[in-house]
Amino acid sequence: MQFMLLFSRQGKLRLQKWYVPLSDKERKKISRDLVQTILARKPKMCSFLEWRDLKIVYKRYASLYFCCAVEDQDNELITLEIIHRYVELLDKYFGSVCELDIIFNFEKAYFILDEFLLGGEAQETSKKNVLKAIEQADLLQEVRIFLYHQIHLL
Amino acid sequence: MALKIVKGSIDRMFDKNLQDLVRGIRNHKEDEAKYISTCIDEIKQELKQDNIAVKANAVCKLTYLQMLGYDVSWAAFNIVEVMSSSKFTYKRIGYLAASQCFHESTDVIMLTTNQIRKDLSSPNQYDTGVALTGLSCFVTPDLARDLANDIMTLMSHTKPYIRKKAVLIMYKVFLKYPESLRPAFPRLKEKLEDPDPGVQSAAVNVICELARRNPKNYLSLAPLFFKLMTSSTNNWVLIKIIKLFGALTPLEPRLGKKLIEPLTNLIHSTSAMSLLYECVNTVYIDVNTPPLPSLSLSLCLYLSLPPQLCVQKLRILIEDSDQNLKYLGLLAMSKILKTHPKSVQSHKDLILQCLDDKDESIRLRALDLLYGMVSKKNLMEIVKKLMLHVDKAEGTTYRDELLTKIIDICSQSNYQYITNFEWYISILVELTRLEGTRHGHLIASQMLDVAIRVKAIRGFAVAQMATLLDNAHLLTGNMQRMGICEVLYAAAWICGEFSEHLENPMQTLEAMLRPKVATLPGHIQAVYVQNAAKLFATVLKSQEGNTDSTAAQETSQLMIDRLPLFVQSANLEVQERASCILQLVKYIQKLQQKDVEVAEEVSALFAGELNPVAPKAQKKVPVPEGLDLDSWINEPPSESESEDEQPKAIFAKEEPKHSRPRREEVDEKELAKRREARKQEQANNPFYIKASPSSQKVYQEAPGVEHIPVVQIDLSVPLKVPGLPMSDQYVKLEEERRQKERAEKKKKEKKKRKEKRSGRGKKHDSGPESEEDITPAHQVDIVTEEMPEKSSKHKKKKQKKEKEEKEKKKKKKHHHHHHHSDGGGEEAVQNGTVEEEEPLPVSVFFCFLPLTKVYDIQGNLQDGSQVVVSVIFENKCDSFLKSMEFNVLDSLNSKLQRPEGSGPHDGLTVPFQLPPGVSNEARFVFTVQSIIMPQKLKGTLTFIVKDSSTHEKLDFKLHFTCTSYLITTPCYSDAFAKLLESGDLKCSSVRLEGVNMPFHHLLARICFHHHFSVVERIDSCASMYSRSIQGHHVCLLVKVSAQTVSIDAKCDEPTLLGNVLDEIKQTFSQC
């Protein structure tokens, strides 16, 4: 996987993770282009598109779009599964996750992502293991999580 | 100290934390930028404090701002500070910030090495974990090099949590620091059998990614993966393994056989679509891609009826209600289509169904598939379906896409699948009813193409076009449909040109002269006017046959009434054509009033059928007997003759005469533009005579003069009067022609005739195509009426010469750029030009066998003293070769060109390294003073074999034959004759006995090996010509009788000639 972006229906970036070294300028340009392209697609359209030399896999959960860029030989369906798995993890961690949870606890969202993917590859396919690792790491930290229950992603 | 801590935490209570920042930003939607800039100021203050908690909070906020697109690179050092905190809470934030904000060019990364190393060896596995995660995002080559060992140790950590992270990050390390792969590989391999499934899957992941880059090195792991594949139940792992096999199988076909069973099992049993998709994709697609496309076939043969199996599985995907599966199914299907069209074609129904899908991306995929699926049998059916969709389709983009696809599908491979052209014409006519399409011109060009090329269809086409013209108002009704009116261009032209097929030409004529036509775009009106005249001729012809002569007069009157509308047109083309035709018709009317029969003469204006012409047809026209194109019609003007005699003087004289004072008047841009336009004009002008190759000789003999003609011509057009550029081109043409004359040894030519020819050529810009200008698909012609091939000997020769001329140009470019153009080698062989391949003397290889070399020697046309030697190095041993140095012992005559500053005995570094089995080419330039003698240069190549790190040496000899100084140069027979007559050349001859080969083989051999070109060949006697890089002429007369070949040769340099002849002799003694 080359990168993952989370953005809202208004096109606001909520999370970005880059697994390839790119300058800030390039990153900004890519995310701007991609957000526009995806938001322009109709709701009933399929989740895949070819964009430059990459394959883009995206899925919308409530107000949030999850978007991954993978290489040509990569499997679109498994990427879709990765996205879904990540949303499930967020959901389990926050307990009925909504967009605001991710906005206000964005660092937590990153920590979960980092336990799930490393360098763009899935490192742990067991949900239980990911959550266990996060919980234990959290134990080492004075935790203050603010939960916002609004529109739930799942 | 205690007070300080208390003070710190009190301060902190008033700081904004991340949540406050986010909330603040949300509350300041109007002046977000302003709010954030105050926040950044606060953060800067916070970063100045000693309290690490405050700093961490500030860094956390910065990470958020970074995501919003603000530059936070200024805080890089603070991030490092937070990273090195001993508390996990802050360390975690620090590493997160680093992984988001750092990239390879961040300087402070250098400072982190020791901190990261410390964290990696921390007793707390989460410290280690966080460091590994962070590192995966910002690892640089330096970090990779310094930390590779630490990470490698972590691969055997007691905790699987660390092991799997370490394994995954090793991939990033390998990418940044490839040297680490070799030592780490055994351990990585070991991890494939790790007891923890997470670690195992991480190892599979990494090896799969590595294998995708370089499959060869991982073949040995195949059995291990095979075991994993049959035992694993984890779909994530299985997908990776299948991908890996997809990369390995092309290298080891036997693997395919072994894979059949497990793969078929998986395809049948799995419920996971992602896995199924991967199986299908890998087996049928990845394997099908080069380098071994044939392999896919064998793999398919192994699998029982596999294309069907896969296509059926894909069918399930496509039939699924999930858009995503549908899309992927179609995508995979289109890839299989390339290799197994038959098995896909049977699912036409399904793909047609997809055209109804609400998702446009799916519809477009289905359209792509249809393009490859059509056959003669199903074309009409498919197009009929598509036509239905055109009607239903909403949104012009998709409809336009459909339209172009229909035309693409029908016209593909030269209308291969169309069995009934009446049908196709009706489809095209139907398409014109499409609203708001932009593709009118596309339909128009198809109409023209079909009507012209398919003779049998003309009657039908004309009838359809007449209807179109009649209903033209429907097409031009509203402004939105302007795109479609392009078809009227085609309709008018077809009706006019093939008017004999019209049932009611009068009606069509009237339709073409309606006042409404004046609203059409100018280029269409112009066609209308011209074709109205054609129709007029046809109408007159039919009416004059009748007894009633008034009808014909009425027709003329109609023309006279309607044409003035066009005479007033703002479009010059329309205006000009209309006034010409109006005057013509007025004259005809006068004649008609005198009861003169005019129809015959009027139709003679447009007589002669227009046939499709193959681009090369012109050459097949035989020159009429007794016509000598090269003789003068009139005596040449004496003035130009005197010019001809002093070619240099003309440049010297003329340049100052009229070019210099005017120089300032024309700016560079304008010049460039004109130059470009002129080149274009020349390229399109079939009558333009390209500079003869022999003119190059003139340039060469007067170095530095070569650019002058161009400059001179540019400057002779100083005024920006619209009429002038034309005449300028005239001048240019004339100039070029003169150059050619000069080059051909002042041969007298038929100047008047030439002028006439070039003049005519200019008017007929759009006339028959020149060779470069390949327009209608000639080989594709359906009614191709190839002209009879009656080419006389003379013509053939000319063709050949032209070809050679072109090749020559190519070659020149070749030399100039000093690199091989695509397929350069092949080209050289075909052309029989300079390249020469000789393996080095065998003795060289006895000492050490890692290298073979092949070299070519090429003379450099640009510089008579330069020879380019291309050496191909091929590494035949198993080790990596590097630091190659090429050195040659210079002789008095030949010197290797070395870069400035290096001594005369220094070697040249070969600019590449050679992995085993790889070959690469390097070029070396030699300066040669005298070329009349062959010579051998001794040289050495030194290199280092990677594993042994010792210097190795390879001696070789470079053999510069005299032949390598010759350049294939075409020569006209008359110029050749002049050359022989001139008496400047010395004679020599040689006899070859026992040559047993056909004469043309013999000639080809001389051409190929010795860079000659055939000037003329009569029976078993041929004259040949070549020129050295220093301008020596070499002429051969080759005769063969029985098995004896005698070569009489003339050259202005007897030594060179002797050597060349010796070399020719040697060539034939070897066979």
UniProtKB/TrEMBL annotation, chain A:
Coiled coil: none annotated. It is a peripheral membrane protein. SUPFAM superfamilies: SNARE-like (SSF64356). Subunit of clathrin-associated adaptor protein complex 1 that plays a role in protein sorting in the late-Golgi/trans-Golgi network (TGN) and/or endosomes. The AP complexes mediate both the recruitment of clathrin to membranes and the recognition of sorting signals within the cytosolic tails of transmembrane cargo molecules. It is found in: Cytoplasmic vesicle membrane; Golgi apparatus; Membrane, Clathrin-coated pit. This is AP complex subunit sigma. GO terms for molecular function: clathrin adaptor activity. GO terms for cellular component: AP-1 adaptor complex; clathrin-coated pit. Residues 1-140 form the AP complex mu/sigma subunit domain. The keyword Protein transport applies. The keyword Nucleotidyltransferase does not apply. It comes from the Eukaryota. It comes from Sparus aurata. The lineage of its organism: Eukaryota, Metazoa, Chordata, Craniata, Vertebrata. Adaptor protein complex 1 (AP-1) is a heterotetramer composed of two large adaptins (gamma-type subunit AP1G1 and beta-type subunit AP1B1), a medium adaptin (mu-type subunit AP1M1 or AP1M2) and a small adaptin (sigma-type subunit AP1S1 or AP1S2 or AP1S3). Binds to MUC1. Keywords: Coated pit, Cytoplasmic vesicle, Golgi apparatus, Membrane, Protein transport, Transport. The gene is LOC115580176. InterPro entries: AP1_sigma, AP_complex_ssu, AP_mu_sigma_su, Clathrin_sm-chain_CS, Longin-like_dom_sf. It holds the Pfam family Clat_adaptor_s. Belongs to the adaptor complexes small subunit family. GO terms for biological process: intracellular protein transport.
UniProtKB/TrEMBL annotation, chain B:
Coiled coil: none annotated. It comes from Sparus aurata (Gilthead sea bream). The gene is AP3D1. SMART domains: BLVR. GO terms for biological process: anterograde synaptic vesicle transport; Golgi to vacuole transport; neurotransmitter receptor transport, postsynaptic endosome to lysosome; protein targeting to vacuole; synaptic vesicle budding from endosome; synaptic vesicle membrane organization. The keyword Acetylation applies. It is a peripheral membrane protein. Residues 747-763, 808-820 have a biased composition (Basic residues). Residues 627-692, 732-834 are annotated as: Disordered. Part of the AP-3 complex, an adaptor-related complex which is not clathrin-associated. The complex is associated with the Golgi region as well as more peripheral structures. It facilitates the budding of vesicles from the Golgi membrane and may be directly involved in trafficking to lysosomes. Involved in process of CD8+ T-cell and NK cell degranulation. In concert with the BLOC-1 complex, AP-3 is required to target cargos into vesicles assembled at cell bodies for delivery into neurites and nerve terminals. This is AP-3 complex subunit delta-1. It comes from the Eukaryota. Residues 645-681, 732-746 have a biased composition (Basic and acidic residues). It is found in: Cytoplasm; Golgi apparatus membrane. One of its GO terms (cellular component) is Golgi membrane. Residues 666-800 form the AP-3 complex subunit delta domain. Keywords: Acetylation, Coiled coil, Cytoplasm, Golgi apparatus, Membrane, Phosphoprotein, Protein transport, Repeat, Transport. Belongs to the adaptor complexes large subunit family.
